[in-house]
Fold:
Amino acid sequence: MYLGFGRLPKHVTFTTTDPELLPVPSPDYLALHAACAKVAHLSGAAKYIDKVLEDLEEMPVLSEDGSSARLLEDALLHASSRSPVWV
Structure:
């Protein structure tokens, strides 16, 4: 079922050819992610995050005067949150 033009489906079904090696995502984690995304969107944080990521893609080099330090910090934090943690 689609919500309308340009929108994503309201429901999706995950499938896998190998449940042992490639399990489907946890419904609990998906629900938690959806709740966090909704809070970020409603608080306006999503726009800030999108702007930072857009700025990162458009900036080929860092400025010599240090004015891009905050952008670098955000990039490093974003990259570290996506990196796997090895124990």
